[in-house]
Design goal:
Strand content: under 5%
Distance between the termini: 32 Å
Structural class: mainly alpha
Oligomer: single chain
Largest sheet: none
Radius of gyration: 11 Å
Length: 73
């Protein structure tokens, strides 16, 4: 059985597919950070998550099976 990944506890393959698509990666990243209670990090992703953070999320998802967490506030 595959280890649960970052987006809503979905399978790694499903989370990876969501991370590859920029719009879904941006939306899932914002919702994930807000669900964790990290309001500031969610807002940063809301306004800046469509560029370099998307690439970082993709790299981290492939490497660590987790999205990039630069800000833990």
């Amino acid at each position: 059985m595959a280890k649960n990944s970052d987006y809503f506890g979905l399978d790694f393959v499903v989370s990876l597919i969501l991370a590859i698509i920029p719009i879904t990666s941006w939306l899932c990243g914002v919702v994930t950070r807000l669900q964790e209670g990290k309001i500031f990090a969610g807002l940063v992703r809301l306004f800046l998550g469509f560029n370099i953070i998307w690439l970082l999320d993709l790299i981290f998802m492939i490497k660590d099976k987790s999205i990039c967490r630069l800000i833990n506030v």
